[in-house]
C-alpha cells in the first residue's frame, strides 16, 4: 500500500512538472498583453492640407499617440502637406491600417510638399508617437 501511495505521489509530481511551465507561459503572455495595453497614450494633432505649403482645405486632426488612423472624411489620397504638433513624430502610410510604403520621422513643422517625397495624394493612414 505504501509503495502504491509513493507511486501515485511521483505520478502527480511528474504531471505537475509538465503543467507548471505551461501555466507560467500563460501568465507571461497575459503580462505581456497587459503591458502592451498600458502603452502610454496622449492626445496630439496632425495638421493636414490638400494643397502644397499648407494651403487649400486644411484640418487639424486630433490624434491619440501610438494608434493607427485610417483617413476618411475626404482625406484619403488627397493630402499634399502635413505637420504634427511640437514633440510629436508621425509616419504616413500608402494603404489603410498603416500598411504599405511609408514616409516616417515627420516632425514639426512638417512636410510642405509631399511631391518631394513622392507621396503627394497617396496617404491613406498614419501613426504618431
UniProtKB/TrEMBL annotation:
The keyword Signal applies. Residues 1-19 form the signal peptide. InterPro entries: G_crystallin-like. Keywords: Signal. This is Uncharacterized protein. It comes from Lasiosphaeris hirsuta.
